[in-house]
Design goal:
The chain is an alpha+beta fold and 339 residues long. The protein is built from 17 helices and 7 strands. Strand 6 and strand 7 form a beta hairpin.
Length: 339
């Protein structure tokens, strides 16, 4: 069944669902009622619509346990293989081959190479194979009301989810995603969907859950609007001079505060041609136990970190994209065997 149907039907279905499965304890909570009051006053949805949703919300305490689980930072040489592997490369080539026309159109419109769009969808959800099984209303309500450390962020995302469902004519209770509220093939948060998802096939809906065309266009649009420069490099290997200046530069990750010329003056020597006026960030990765290497991340590297604020994520996305492109081109231009 399609996720999309008229608003009137959505309201009626939610209302009758609330009568059948009302969760009075959650709906009656003072903080939930205050939130409903605020959203009704803001015009997000009507009170019956919002109460119908919250009456059907099932809190998921296990999500809180996942969020509070201490993260173990792994070095690059252990992290890399989770994504730079034969399976994702092979599936990435197949995804590209199956969506060539759409990826070509996305490149023409957004100036983002097909391999980068393919790679992001692969890393995020294995090309749609794992988009998440939590109802977003459950996940975001749990985090919005029972996770004080980041309640403000997730309460905003919950509001964005309501607005998304209203504008797209989607049954909010039907939407599923990750335990943290990320959605669809590219794993957009609701606020990201509202800002950057696009209807790339022109059917009147932005469907990143089931529609590869919209998912591809949405990733391309996201990258373009976050500064991707078509044809520019992503990284340049570098040599460095140890010292306080190096430590300061490495601590300033995710920012393009310096030009390459300024970085040269601070002891960073690019090992490949790069413009002196290009903005760059220095980063390091432990490529083997006890062995660290350094790179300059250029504008396009910075753009990848806008999608996921992780140096290792950006690096593996770049490497995976290059290998998928190499394999795709090799398959496309492979000699045809003659009888």
């Amino acid at each position: 069944m399609s996720l999309f149907f008229p608003k009137m039907l959505l309201s009626l279905l939610l209302f009758w669902a609330s009568l059948a499965h009302a969760d009075a304890s959650f709906l009656a909570r003072a903080d939930v009622q205050r939130y409903i009051d605020e959203q009704v006053a803001a015009g997000t949805l009507t009170r019956p619509e919002m109460e119908a949703v919250f009456a059907n919300v099932e809190l998921k305490p296990n999500i809180i346990s996942i969020m509070d689980k201490p993260s173990t930072a792994r070095p690059w040489y252990q992290f890399r293989g989770n994504f730079y592997n034969e399976r994702l490369i092979r599936e990435g080539v197949a995804f590209w081959q199956a969506n060539e026309d759409t990826l070509r159109r996305a490149q023409e419109q957004f100036h983002v190479p097909p391999e980068m769009i393919v790679t992001i969808i692969g890393i995020e959800t294995r090309y749609g194979g794992n988009t998440g099984s939590f109802r977003l209303a459950d996940a975001l309500s749990t985090l919005a009301f029972d996770y004080p450390r980041r309640a403000a962020f997730f309460r905003n995302e919950l509001t964005e989810l309501f607005l998304l469902a209203h504008s797209e004519n989607i049954n909010v209770l039907s939407l599923k995603g990750s335990y943290a509220g990320a959605m669809g093939l590219p794993q957009f948060m609701p606020s990201s969907f509202r800002k950057w998802a696009v209807d790339f096939d022109g059917d009147g809906h932005r469907d990143i859950w089931n529609n590869r065309v919209d998912a591809i266009g949405s990733v391309g649009n996201y990258f373009q609007l976050h500064g991707w420069q078509g044809g520019d490099d992503v990284i340049v290997p570098a040599e460095v001079v140890p010292g306080e200046a190096l430590d300061k530069l490495l601590a300033d990750k995710f920012n393009l505060h310096y030009s390459v010329a300024e970085l040269r003056a601070m002891g960073v020597t690019p090992q490949a041609p790069v413009r002196d006026d290009a903005r760059a960030v220095l980063f390091s990765l432990e490529v083997a136990p006890g062995e660290t290497r350094y790179w300059l991340g250029l504008n396009n590297f910075y753009t990848i970190t806008r999608y996921n604020k992780s140096t290792m994520y950006a690096m593996v996305a770049h490497e995976l994209a290059q290998e998928i492109r190499n394999r795709y081109l090799a398959a496309r231009f492979a000699p045809t065997a003659t009888p």
